[in-house]
Design brief:
The complex is a heterodimer of chains A (235) and B (690). By secondary structure, chain A is mostly helical. Helices cover 53% and strands 0% of the residues of chain A. Chain A has 8 helices and no strands. The longest helix of chain A is centred in the middle third of the chain and has 25 residues, at 111-135. By secondary structure, chain B is an alpha+beta fold. Helices cover 53% and strands 7% of the residues of chain B. Chain B is built from 26 helices and 15 strands. In chain B, the strands form 5 sheets. Chain B has a 5-stranded antiparallel sheet, with no helix packed on it. In chain B, strands 5-6-9-10 form a 4-stranded antiparallel sheet. Chain B has a two-stranded antiparallel ribbon with strand order 1-2. In chain B, helix 18 (464-480) packs parallel to helix 20 (518-537) and helix 20 (518-537) crosses helix 23 (579-605). Chain B starts with a helix and ends with a helix. Classes of the chains: A mainly alpha (235), B alpha+beta (690). The interface between A and B is large, with 35 and 44 residues.
Amino acid sequence: MLTGILRAVGEPLDVSRIYKHTREDVLWKNAFQPWRRSPLWLCLRVALQTSLVCHDDEEPHLRYKSFMLFFMAQVLRDALKASLPSDVLFIMKAKVSGRSLKLGEIEATPWLLDVETVVKAAQQELLRRWMSVEKHRDPFGTQQHWPPSQLLFHQDTKLTLSSLRPYLAKVRARSGSQSTFHNFTPDCGRRISQCSSSLRDVNLWRGVEGSELRLQLADLELWVQDSLKDGWGQT
Amino acid sequence: MKREDASPALTEVIDAYTLSASFAYTDLPEDTSLMVLTLMDLWVALDMCSLYHCPMLRDYNPGFPPLLFEPLLLPKKSQMGRLLHVEQYLAERRKEAISGWPSVFESVGTKNSFAVRFFQQSSHHQELRQKIEAEARNERSLKISELARKCQMYQEFIKKSDVLVCEFVKHRLYSVHSEFCQKCLLKVKAQRFRVDVHEWPLPSDDLEAKAVVFELDLPTIVSNWRNTTYSLLVDRLSLKADARSSHGGKGKKQGLYILHKYDGLQRFVRSEAARLQLASDAKPFMVSHYRDFEISQASESNVCVHNGLRYSMYDSKISRWTNELLGHCDLREKCRFNLSSGPYLGLQYAVNSTIHTSNEVIASQAKCSEALTLHEFYAFGTLRSGHRLQWRNIARELSACILDFNCYETNALVTQAAWQVGASSEGTLSRESHEDLEEEEFGTSLLSALDDAFGTIEGNWQGAAAARTFVALAVRLLSLTTYDNVREGCFRLLRRARAISLSWTRELGRKLQEGQNEDELKALNTRALEMALTCHGTFDVDPQHVPRLLKSKEDVAVLTECSIVVHDRCPAVIDDLPASIKMLLRRHGRLSSLLEAPLRKRILEFRGGLDSTIRRLWAGYVPGSPWTALRSPDERWLVTETSSEEVASPSVVHYNLLDSSLLVNGSPLTRLPRSYETHPTFRRLFGEVM
């Protein structure tokens, strides 16, 4: 609100301005408290940058940038001494080397070597930690119940088809195929004789289904059509 | 067989046939129609036989509505003749029946009801009634003397009790009434005397009593007639009897008293309980709370009571009163082709009946599916509007080329129009709907339209459905026309249709041998089956015309060839096939059984036809000994032995006239035995692929 009032009653003053990305955002998921960037740290940095600015230079913020790099290299050195976790070290190292690369393009100063040694030391430390992880046979204890020394590869990969060989032997011993001639004897159900004139012979047989049942029904229908009237004239 | 014996035999045949056929024919309207016609033929025989024994039945209308049989689908002339006979018989029966007299299945105790009139002329039943009444009088006088005896004893107890005084016992300071007081005990004893009522066994109404006596000894002839006619009316000719009964509550009705289980008359029951029985929902006195009285309140008038039951006719199978079930005869739903889902779904009404007007169809154009053009919609909707116009409309549509004849729905519509018998016209066989076909001029113009229509589909086997429609029309024309030149034209047309569909069958057979992809093969296989069925269907004419179409050895060769293709292409399990093909398979089965005898005759006459078909399938076949038919009941099998001149041992070849299986030395030639193919393991390993 203050800025709003000032903008209304005052007028912009012509001073040297700096611009900073605040990257203001809040992370708050499954957490006790929200996380955000420290405003104090931003304030400190702005104070530093505006104090160290030198308008005569080609690059007005060189001093501030150099200081920040130097300072962060110092912090990384202390972190190495305190042997912080590898991920934190890795991120710090990445930041420092990024800044040193950018600065090195502008101006190669001797103390940059010092920064380089710190970065290298951090790299060495990370490498050392990774080597120790690699060297350990089972660093997380996930395979302690699996004794590879007791495996018997030869035995475990042997497959047997115990009934195949006797069967093959039998095939060889089989005599020439039996006669291909099969005598065919049809087994058809009884049918309604269409020439029968007696109702007694007209019957359906239970227990048949599908096409055989339909055949019986068709026979009966045909009988009704052709023979029923003959026997049942109009007398 | 004499007529006396025929009634039970006919009843048995009707029952057995109904049981099997109604189960086997559910989904095919023309089969259902044939079932109804067959049942009606049998019923007419039963009715004649029953009338011979019991002329009194003639006075009662059997209850078949006059327009009931109009929806039937009867493709053959002989069937329409039979229907005409049945309808004439029923009309005669209706005319003879005395109008206003009650139905045999409903009314119980009115002056003209069948039971009462039968009783009046049957001395046997009158004797039975006298016997029942004599026994009841006897029981009643016993009851009265029992009542008097009990009354006397009651009085004695009361008298004894009156002279006594109540007894008291001293209880320290005061006296109380004794538990064993003689006076009071006697009183209680007296009050315990009760007497059961005597219910008169027959209803007090004279007419009702007569009906009850008649039911006790129902003559077999009447019982058979009544039960068979009733179950025809209610189970077969009515609209879904089950659906209507369900809302009335299945199972036993609460508080229903059936005559055959009534204690008072149990000893006089002479006939077995059948489906129709007399029952009452009013209680008899014997089970009500009036069944006994204390003596003090009993008197002759309230102990000897009249009969409490009020009888009506009851259907014990469906558990409903018969008057609720009768009068719902309707065959329309059972005798129609149903359109499967799709663009035509909303047009089912156009297939169902002929009473919608063309204006109604135009008015409903908004309902036209996007897949149809409006012209097609209109043509489909109005084809059947007006039963006398149907055939004219069909003939016009054949040349107009608006309807899509290649789809199943059009086939259903046209077939329904061509086959449905429709309204009868005074004693003519072809009825009002099909009168056009008897005209020579219409016959020839329909023929030329069909000829042109065949010309348009000839080139492509996609037109199989259209070909089937045209064949059905030609067959119908052949069946009903009376002119020889039209008939000859129909024969020519059917032969042409046969040649076209046979060439399609062969073409698809070749494609099948070239095909690779499994899905494609399966689809082609179904198509080949459809073509062979179409070709086989060109033989589906009236029996008297079969000899003309099955004349030469070439005819025999075509018939056997397409039958064998049907047998070979038909999958072992047909559930997956489209409904239209299942329908064709059913027709094919019926046609095969009709053609069995003529085909056998032809093959035994000249063998060349079957031999050439077999040589097409089996190059090494050398005809040997003549074909012979096996003896009954295996007469469907023809057998021959191949010539032994060129090969070492002759083979025995069997051919089945019904399902066209071809066996060489007892093993199928072209496909695995059915028992293999339906085996679960085979199906799992090889699926439908052969």
